[in-house]
Amino acid sequence: MVGADLVFRAPGSVQILWALAVDAVREVIEAAHTRVIDEVVDQMETGLLIVRRGKDSTPERAEPGVIAARFRHYESRDGQPLLHDHLVVSVKVRRTDGHWGTLHTRTLLEYTVALSELYNQRVLEEISAAAPASSRAEALTRLVPQPALLRLTP
Question: Where is the TrwC relaxase domain (predicted)?
Answer without folding.
Answer: 2-128
